[in-house]
C-alpha cells in the first residue's frame, strides 16, 4: 500500500464567545436603562415654600453607572480583538467592573448607608431645607444587580475559555491526527491481547490509511512450543 504524503494540519478555529458577548450586551443595556430610572424620590420642605419633591435617577445616585455600561460595551469589542491569556485577563477586568456595578444596588436594596442624608445632598436642596422622607425604588436597583450578575458570568466564562476544548475537538477532526491515533490504538490492542482486538470501523480504516494492518498479529510460539514455520 503506497503511503500518502503527510497532510498539513488544518488550522483550528477558536470557538467564538457568543454567550459571553450576549451577556455583556444584556449587562450594558441593563446598567444603562437602570441609570435612567428613578432610584430615590426625596421629599423636603424649607418652611417658606411648598414642600419639594425631587427624583434622583441612577446616574445621579451613582455617577459611575453610565460609564460602567460604556465600559462593558467597549469590552464586547475587546473580546473579539484579543485571544488566549489576554482574553482571560479581560474576563478578570469585566468581573471587577461587575462587582463595582453591583455595589450601589445592593446597598440601596439592603438599606445600608444614610439614604435620606445622601438623597438631600444629591438633590442640592437649600441650606434651610429639611428632608422629610426618601422613597426607595427597588426595581432599578434590582435591575442593576441583575445586569452586574450577567457581566460577572460573562467575565467568568471568558477566564475559563483558553481555547483548549476547541483545539482538542479540532485535533481529532483532522485526518492526520485521526490516523496516528488509530494506529496507536491498534498497536496497543495488539500488545495487550496478542491479536487485533475488535475496533470501530472508523479506527480500522484510519489505521489502514496510516499504513498499519489491523489484522496483523505478532509472531509467537505455537501451542506445541515451537516457533511458527518450524516443525520438528
Summarize the structure in words.
By secondary structure, the chain is mainly alpha-helical. It has 2 domains: 18-159, Up-down Bundle (Butyryl-CoA Dehydrogenase, subunit A, domain 3); 175-210, no CATH class. Helices cover 58% and strands 9% of the residues. It has 9 helices and 3 strands, in the order αββααααβαααα. The chain has helices at residues 18-36, 58-61, 65-81, 84-110, 115-122, 138-159, 164-173, 175-193, 201-209; strands at residues 38-45, 52-57, 130-136. It has a 3-stranded antiparallel β-sheet with strand order 2-1-3. Helix 8 packs across helix 9 (201-209). It is rod-shaped and about 105 Å long. The relative contact order is 0.16. Residues 183-232 are annotated as: Disordered. This is Putative membrane protein (TIGR02234 family). The chain crosses the membrane at residues 21-39, 59-82, 89-112, 138-158. It comes from Nocardia neocaledoniensis. Keywords: Membrane, Transmembrane, Transmembrane helix.
